[in-house]
Amino acid sequence: MAYKLSLLDKIALSDTLPAQQALANTITYAQAAERAGFHRFWVAEHHHSKDWASSAPEALVSWLLAVTEKIRIGSGGVMLQHYSPYKVAEVFNVLAALAPDRVDLGVGKTPGGLPLASEALQLEFSDEKRLPFAEKAALLSRFLGGTPLEDGRFQGLAATPAPPVAPMGFLLGGSVDSALLAARLGWQLSYAGHLNGNEENLRKTIAAYKQATNGAVPQLALAAVIAPTREEALAIAETIYVYKVIFSDGKVFSLATQETAEEFARQSGRHDYRIEQQRGSMVVGTARDVSRELHGLHQRYGIEDFMLELPMRALEQRLQAIEALADVRLQLAA
Question: Which InterPro entries does the record cross-reference, listed alphabetically (predicted)?
Fold first, then answer.
């Protein structure tokens, strides 16, 4: 098998799993992933959430780098619309200086929370000075690595310290536009297959990225429900939904619960929307079933890095799943 496996952790909360324990579980999960030979471990960004404890990925990345040794650690991702590109570059340059050649900076375009949280995060921003996302990402890309800018408004300014190896940049997205932007930035594209399971869109996006980068292939993020038997995996998958708030202008936001989706719509102040309950886009089965699916995607598209989100809430289920995936890879490699 020529491809690598990586993990995304959203750090799920529940009535019986408070934040302190959920965050402690993330350490256990990352360390287990490292032992099992996974390539990357990323944490997400969600704000004012009853469902997830991952509101500050930069803090979690620092923590996880300190309790692991080799696995790459990163954000999946920093929601750049809320932040100064210069400050994000400073933070990740510090992290990359602490753990050279182990830091990934995944950047996302969505808000990662409800409108009220976005308003609070952007409290000091003015509409007149707000940069479009592509411009913010381009500025961030120039600051990564810590070398002074050679031209423009910030000529001579550097985001220090300069790490031995710059953080590796990823753009999270699921469209041809995202592919082209990632290519312009010189970043890898992390295709959000766990949010957009349309294979024709995947094909077009991969083709656009390959053409724009002289043959590079994006990372593919997928949700995978893995259990000892296919029947058990299907039973778990049947309990997992995503709630999409769909506005009349085509904007779509994915939320974890009906309650959160309704609150998102209320806080938006808009009335031109509908909420759809949908099955999540997932690969479902035993570790061997899932490995077979991944191998097929690798064969068809040349995917070399799969970023897996395992939406099973119980830590033990996720630990068993990554151990089973590692065992299957060893068996197939023998």
Answer: Bact_Lucif_Oxidored (IPR050766), CmoO-like (IPR019949), Luciferase-like_dom (IPR011251), Luciferase-like_sf (IPR036661)
Q: Are residues 70 and 111 in the same domain?
A: yes
Using an 8 Å Cβ cutoff, are 304 and 6 in contact? no
- Residue 290 and residue 5: Cα distance in Å, rounded? 12
CA–CA separation, 30 and 41 (whole Å): 6
Structure tokens that stand for 279 in this block: 């099955």
**What are the C-alpha distances in Å from 47 to residues 3, 121, 210, 260?**
33, 9, 34, 12
Report how many domains make up the chain: 2
Residue 283 main-chain phi, psi, to 5 deg: -95, 130
Are the beta carbons of 245 and 265 closer than 8 angstroms?
Answer: yes
Beta sheet of 273-279, edge-to-edge order = 252-255, 241-247, 273-279
pTM of the model: 0.94
* Residue 314 and residue 172 share a domain: yes
Instruction: Name the token pair of 62.
Output: 């620092």
Q: Which residues contact 152 (CB under 8 A, 6 or more apart)?
A: none
pLDDT tens, position by position, 12-66: 998 899 999 999 999 999 999 999 999 999 999 999 998 999 999 999 999 999 9
Nearest to 191, CA basis, from 199, 202, 183, 181: 202
32 and 70 belong to one structural domain? yes
Distance of CA 147 to the CA centre of its chain: 27
Q: 126: how many CB neighbours lie within 10 A of its CB?
A: 7
Residue 171 backbone phi and psi in degrees, to 5: -105, 125
Each residue of 128-150: pLDDT tens digit?
A: 778 999 999 999 999 999 999 99
Contact partners, residue 172, CB within 8 Å, separation at least 6: 76, 77, 106, 107, 108, 109, 178, 190, 192, 221
What is the crossing angle of helices 85-98 and 133-143, to 10°? 40
Domain containing 270 equals 241-279
Is there a single domain that holds both residue 272 and residue 290? no
End-to-end CA distance of the chain: 10
> Are 269 and 290 within one domain?
no
* Residue 195 located in a structural domain: yes
